[in-house]
Amino acid sequence: MKTIQDTVSLIGNTPLVRLKGPSEAAGCDIFGKCEFTNPGASVKDRAAMGIIRDAEERGELKPGGTVVEGTAGNTGIGIALVANARGYNTIIVMPDNQSQEKMATLRALGAELLLVPPTKFANPGHFVHTSRRLAEETPGAIWANQFDNIANRRAHIETTAPEIWDQMDGRIDGFTCAVGTGGTLAGVGMGLKAFDENVAIALSDPYGAALYEYYAHGELKAEGNSVAEGIGQGRITANLEDAPIDTQYRISDEEGLEWVSRLLAEEGLALGLSSGINVAGAVRLGQELTEKLGRPARVATILCDTGFRYLSTLYNPEWLREKGLPVFPWLDR
Ligand code: PMP
């Protein structure tokens, strides 16, 4: 392998691994894109890179400038890494119910961190609106605006989708993932459909999000709730507009956690809950496509971030019990 000249170039080109347990469960081939191998250990490094590059190209972000963003954490980590590498400052606004690990990581990276109470999007104190106001008030700052800035999904159209297509030698029947901003689902969906419009694109939605009802019945409606961080959307963001979604699943935290547990115990993969929800969706899509095609389908999904970001939550028996969730048996040993 040749040397790499720039740390930002470490983003992307992540491996695609065949997942044994999910493939057996679905009776086909399920592959996971290992986004935890990005330098910021999540899929959001791609959006951070895409948004910052776009702002540079449009002349909005100048040397010594500042990037401000409202984020559940992973986008902030990606932004802080790329901003450090390119000579910008980072200000992150985050709801205070996200994992301690994400907050500690952001502080360690040198980002200025503002924690706000979690509220509904309509509330002016919501982390997204707070970050927009901060950007307006800060000289030389841009607002990354990951939800409605389509440089986010463009990064997936231009990098994630062609990587998956090449890694699967163009033999792919379906793709699914959950939605935070929608950048990954819409971008990978659009990118894969440009190669082959027959690739089925599915939304895997957690409880507490409104998109399952929207794509199934045309109405934004949420039901129940989820402890998954980084996913669960209540509106059609600009990144989701015209997303080519063929089918949708609603996935419970229990179902997602079952895959987080199995992938760790049986395949040595430490993942977060959004990855477990994605894998659960991929198993359903794989089963449906296998039946429809009359041969084992080939389905890809996203392994969004590392489980080490959730040691105080998903891998903590007290936290799991407090939330009424099943505890992985080895945690009680
Ligand atoms: N999983 C995790 C852990 C995330 O942080 C995010 C981003 N918020 C997602 C999934 C969803 O990605 P996207 O924003 O591209 O929809």
Automatic annotation (TrEMBL):
InterPro entries: Cys_Synth/Cystath_Beta-Synth, P-phosphate_BS, TrpB-like_PALP, TrpB-like_PALP_sf
Key word Transcription regulation present: no
Keywords: Amino-acid biosynthesis, Pyridoxal phosphate, Transferase, Transit peptide
Single GO MF annotation: transferase activity, transferring alkyl or aryl (other than methyl) groups
Pfam family, one: PALP
Ranges where the Tryptophan synthase beta chain-like PALP domain occurs: 10-305
Pathway, per record: Amino-acid biosynthesis
Entry keyword annotation includes Transferase: yes
Name of this chain's protein: Cysteine synthase A
Cofactor: pyridoxal 5'-phosphate
Organism: Croceicoccus marinus
Domain of life: Bacteria
GO biological process, any: cysteine biosynthetic process from serine
PANTHER family: CYSTATHIONINE BETA-SYNTHASE
